[in-house]
Design goal:
- Helix content is about 30%, strand content about 30%.
- By secondary structure, the protein is an alpha+beta fold.
- It folds into two domains: about 5-110, Aminopeptidase, CATH 3.40.630.30; about 145-310, Aminopeptidase, CATH 3.40.630.
- It has a twelve-stranded mixed beta sheet with strand order 1-2-3-4-5-12-6-11-10-9-8-7, with helices on both faces.
- It starts with a strand and ends with a strand.
């Protein structure tokens, strides 16, 4: 059957639902919703030349691709494309067609180096390498069974530190932006970014439809946030008492970070433990997170909580001639 690649139609519910379905079956460790897909599309920076593509076979969406330029990097010409195909429809041309369309688009807008996350499975890696991509760094998806794993007991904050939630910063989140910009700049990665636009941060991160202010824990010292653990839920904004008895959707830790001046004091463990206890008390039974394989300190913290690696992605790189 013929595979057609085209842009996602955000105003068509069937398109958005098909996009989400493919991402869920190919990457079940990350949750998406119509709100989050539309949120991402609404924030497309003109300099990113971003596109969300779908592969359609016999009227059904069977593959997706996200492509764009790292417009906020000081090094020009860096592009990304992440391709996922429904496992029931692999080896039928959808993945190759998506890669070809994404590469042509990025090259036309000046990309000279392409980065792509590839699930660490033989077939996926061979697919990437046949197309000129070489393996680089790796990252892990981790899962914690909140219902069966005994969390570390809650600890009192050290002297001079108090625990709050992101909801306490609802009227003025700028102090959290400052901390996020500092902590995020120290994360391992292939592409350096400059995180300086507060209004863009508010639109993209603070107003993200999955951000749960009540479950995001913040450590405050000397009147400013010095550590935080960001939590996303699929039903953020709903009263936690309305969660289904099954525990609702999983939670996902979007970021755990500490200010440079306060590292080595156990604050990352403190805020993450607080947020996990809050999540379990609210009825959530599963927690996911992700770590770069080179982020030893955070991997050690997550092992301490009982997280287990459930999948690995390998970043692949291709230089365009």
């Amino acid at each position: 059957m013929t595979v057609i690649v085209r842009d996602l139609r955000p105003d068509t519910a069937a398109d958005v639902e098909g996009f989400i379905r493919v991402r869920h079956v190919a990457l079940p460790y990350v949750f998406f919703s119509p709100a989050s897909v539309l949120h991402s599309l609404s924030l497309t920076h003109p300099g990113a030349h971003a596109r969300k593509l779908v592969a359609v076979e016999d009227g059904e969406i069977v593959g997706t691709a996200q492509a764009g330029l790292a417009h906020d990097s000081p090094e020009p010409g860096q592009g990304f494309l992440n391709v996922y195909v429904d496992p029931a429809h692999t080896a039928r041309g959808a993945g190759a067609a998506l890669v070809r369309a994404a590469e042509e688009h990025l090259a036309a807008h000046g990309a000279t180096k392409l980065f792509s996350w590839v699930l660490d499975e033989p077939g996926n890696r061979a697919f990437a390498e046949r197309r000129g991509y070489r393996p680089s760094r790796s990252a892990h998806f981790l899962r914690l069974d909140l219902a069966r794993t005994a969390l570390p007991p809650l600890q009192d904050p050290p002297p001079g530190v108090e625990l709050r939630t992101a909801a306490d910063f609802a009227e003025d989140p700028r102090p959290l932006f400052v901390l996020d910009a500092e902590a995020g700049s120290d994360e391992p990665g292939d592409i350096d970014t400059e995180f300086t636009d507060y209004e863009a941060w508010v639109d993209e991160y603070w107003k993200h439809p999955h951000l749960d202010l009540e479950l995001t824990s913040v450590a405050v010292a000397d009147g400013r946030p010095v550590a935080f653990s960001v939590v996303h839920t699929g039903d953020a904004g709903l009263p936690h008492s309305r969660l289904r008895a099954s525990g609702g959707t999983p939670i996902a830790t979007g970021m755990t970070g500490t200010a440079r001046t306060h590292r080595g004091r156990g604050l990352a463990k403190l805020v993450k433990n607080d947020s996990l206890h809050r999540a379990r008390a609210a009825g959530y039974t599963q927690a996911y997170t992700g770590n770069d394989a080179d982020n030893g300190p955070m991997l050690a913290i997550n092992r301490w909580f009982g997280y287990e690696i459930c999948a690995t992605e390998v970043r692949h790189v291709r230089e365009l001639g």
